[in-house]
Amino acid sequence: MALASLARNDPSLDRARRVFDHIPQRSIASWNTLLAAVVDSRDLHGAALLFDEIPEPDLFSWTTMLTALGGHGDLDRVMCFFDSMPERGIVSWNVVL
After folding, report:
1. Distance between CA 32 and CA 77 in Å, rounded?
2. Each residue's pLDDT tens digit, 82-97
3. Which parts are the PPR repeats (predicted)?
């Protein structure tokens, strides 16, 4: 996927975001690719904003965001987010532990 390649090779994510913005029908895979790239860049605020844009976040979206919150060490926010997850998988439970 071109978006994943751009996200890996452009730390600022400018080109990846431009490509993403021009995708007429975004799949959950494209949303999750960009979300993971934003999280990898350690931009928690940007990740939260992007997460809020996802029309129907899936388990991967939720877990990616949970991992981002966990990486910033705010246990209260982690638990609040975890409690709001519509479903939880083994990875999300491991993040909390």
Report:
1. 21
2. 999 999 989 888 888 8
3. 58-92
